[in-house]
């Protein structure tokens, strides 16, 4: 969606007509809050804990996962995951390297088709070839469902991880029921964390055979903490930033900086809250999901930040994109290039919009410089020693870099830049 800057005729303030989160993204982030989910998950978890049979628990889990996915995804969302899961399972079991590589390609193309067809046709192809771009957009509109399949970004990444690890010699999942549990495990299906099957399956097996009331209690506490982060902190931060987005120019400098801080906590508490709920729900069932956040705003450099923020995604990007590209081998320029590609894909993964791509490139540049700036002569060495000597300064620089990045993430580049400039101006333009 394109953006445009305009001036309000009545107030004279500058406003933006721009990207808003698609309705599908807003709806899906509210799944754990719905009455249907709460009314369904509570009796399910009680029965799961009380039932002594591991086999019955597995069947209960699969049934609830299927109902969960069917309810929130609908027929157009259920069919793609069934097809891709079947292809993934059979190709991995076949032992054929060609079949496994083909399955990886199919998964990636499915993600590109469902989530990025409009973006590629209209914004990429249409930018140079308007006629072809419009024709492809029209074809996509007649072919694609109204909304992308539920959680296609998450389950596609998990399938690619699984196939890649089997391709490298990992043992495939032989049981179709356990593979199904890995594919549609409901706590992590919609918003992660992104699972690794080598860690998930042993944990699932343990959870099916044993129940621990202490783990159940800690899982409930984590769910409660997650709801507090989401409903109390994130939603109130959202109300503030949405209310003052178009009035940003009229705010005094202190309020503008408060806006920036609340914007950064809006996305952190929203995403961390959902991760806590997912991890807590899994823990009640005896299953351990990977941690997704580790106090990211305490990071002292960009590398440290990405080791704390959305850790399951950043680890996936590192292992399956950044390192295969060459990582930080080959000098600073090659490191920045590799980081730029990896983080651009990371940004695009969040949605088919240019602001996500720019946000990814922004972090890729910061990540590459973070890894190599100390070797850039006298100035780089002095800066490195300064940051090591004054950790508060390194923390402040890192937080501001990340916070400015959230402006790019939420708003079109021109609006983000406009807001950055206003942060350093007085009360009036």
Task: Give your account of this protein's structure.
- By secondary structure, this protein is mostly helical.
- The protein folds into three domains: 26-211, no CATH class; 214-284; 296-423.
- It contains 19 helices and two strands.
Indicate the mean pLDDT. 86
Q: What would you call the structural class? A: mainly alpha
Amino-to-carboxy terminus distance: 28 Å
Total strands: 2
| Beta-strand content estimate | under 5%
Helix content: over 70%
In summary, what is this structure?
This protein has 429 residues and is an all-alpha fold. 73% of the residues lie in helices and 2% in strands. The model is unreliable at 1-29 (pLDDT under 50).
What distinguishing features does this structure have?
mainly alpha, disordered N terminus, 19 helices, 3 domains, two-stranded antiparallel sheet, globular, 429 residues
Give the topology.
Blueprint lengths: L3 E4 L6 E4 L5 H6 L6 H16 L3 H20 L1 H20 L2 H32 L1 H14 L8 H16 L8 H8 L2 H4 L7 H13 L3 H32 L8 H32 L17 H5 L4 H15 L6 H18 L4 H19 L4 H13 L1 H20 L2 H11 L6
Antiparallel strand pairs: 1-2
């Amino acid at each position: 969606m394109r953006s445009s800057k305009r001036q309000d005729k009545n107030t004279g303030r500058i406003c933006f007509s721009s990207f808003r989160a698609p309705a599908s993204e807003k709806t899906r982030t509210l799944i754990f809050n719905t009455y249907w989910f709460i009314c369904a998950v509570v009796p399910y978890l009680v029965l799961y804990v009380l039932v002594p049979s591991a086999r019955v628990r597995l069947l209960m889990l699969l049934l609830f996962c299927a109902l969960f996915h069917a309810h929130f995804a609908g027929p157009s969302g259920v069919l793609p995951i069934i097809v891709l899961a079947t292809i993934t399972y059979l190709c991995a079991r076949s032992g054929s390297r060609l079949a496994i590589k083909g399955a990886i390609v199919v998964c990636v193309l499915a993600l590109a088709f469902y989530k990025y067809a409009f973006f590629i046709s209209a914004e990429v192809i249409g930018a140079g070839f308007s006629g072809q771009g419009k024709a492809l957009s029209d074809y996509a509109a007649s072919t694609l469902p109204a909304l992308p399949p539920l959680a296609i970004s998450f389950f596609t990444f998990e399938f690619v991880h699984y196939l890649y690890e089997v391709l490298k010699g990992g043992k495939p999942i032989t049981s179709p029921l356990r593979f199904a549990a890995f594919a549609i495990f409901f706590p992590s299906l919609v918003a992660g964390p992104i699972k690794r099957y080598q860690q998930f399956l042993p944990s699932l097996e343990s959870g099916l055979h044993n129940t621990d009331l202490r783990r159940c209690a800690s899982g409930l506490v984590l769910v409660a903490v997650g709801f507090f982060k989401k409903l109390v902190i994130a939603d109130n931060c959202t109300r503030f930033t949405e209310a003052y987005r178009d009035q940003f120019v009229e705010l005094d400098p202190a309020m503008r900086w408060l806006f920036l801080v609340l914007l950064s906590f809006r996305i952190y508490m929203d995403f961390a809250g959902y991760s806590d709920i997912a991890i807590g729900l899994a823990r009640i069932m005896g299953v351990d999901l990977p941690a997704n956040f580790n106090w990211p705003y305490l990071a002292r450099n960009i590398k440290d930040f990405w080791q704390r923020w959305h850790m399951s995604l950043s680890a996936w990007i590192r292992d399956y994109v950044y390192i295969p590209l060459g990582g930080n081998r080959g000098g600073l320029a090659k490191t920045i290039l590799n980081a730029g590609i990896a983080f651009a894909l990371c940004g695009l993964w969040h949605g088919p919009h240019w602001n996500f791509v720019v946000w990814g490139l922004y972090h890729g540049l910061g990540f590459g410089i973070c890894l190599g700036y100390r070797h850039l002569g006298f100035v780089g060495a002095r800066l490195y020693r300064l940051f090591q000597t004054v950790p508060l300064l390194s923390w402040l620089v890192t937080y501001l870099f990340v916070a400015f990045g959230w402006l790019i993430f939420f708003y079109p580049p021109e609006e983000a830049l406009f807001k950055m400039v206003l942060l350093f101006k007085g009360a009036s333009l």
